[in-house]
Amino acid sequence: MCPGCTRPQRNCICRLASPIDNRVEVLVLQHPDETKNAKNTAGLLLLSLKKSQYHIGEMFTAEDLHDWLFAGNKYPILLYPDTPDSEARGLCMPQPVTPYTQYSPEQLRLVILDGTWRKSRKMLYLNRSLQSLPRLTLGTTPASLYSIRKAHSENQLSTLEASCYALQQLEQQQIDYAPLLQAMQRFVAQQRTFIPIDN
User: Fold this and answer.
1) Other Cβ atoms closer than 10 A to 196
2) What is the CA radius of gyration of the chain?
3) pTM higher than 0.70, yes or no?
4) What are the start-end ranges of the H helices in the chain?
5) For the chain: N or C, fewer Cβ within 10 A?
6) What are 37-50's pLDDT values in tens digits?
7) Do the Cβ atoms of 127 and 94 come closer than 8 Å?
């Protein structure tokens, strides 16, 4: 096993990492089912971003979440689409988003739920502290590069892609994430070599 990315040596992704000095810190909350998924892109994201951290779990204690979300007096923003049925399901409504342009990028923390749509939704429902966070939703984005994993629609993005586009938005295009997106293309190509070819 590679000590850097904890993957088998033949599937190591350390050499694919593209160092990025991101200004907005990223907090990845990863569903346990994703930890052993070879197609998961969060590992490459975390290896590449200078300011990032992650925690694994489905349900977290309120104390832990508070510490992770608000450490350093940062303003946390959850990257997640609107959930119009929140009130009907008895969930906390998200706080209105304070225009992030009022903050410097270094004052922000982007929160990512890493899992399938179903698993990430369950993580949201199980953790009230996440429900009330102000949210960032992505507008129009390029077509996904993530051709090795089944998507329900063409605009569904991998964790890495969604994070890059969100960071570009929060950092007002001041950091170039193209090298990291190109690294993901190499990651996809590497993963394809392990997919059996049907005769």
Assistant:
1) 5
2) 17
3) yes
4) 42-48, 62-70, 117-126, 128-131, 159-170, 178-192
5) C
6) 878 899 999 999 99
7) no
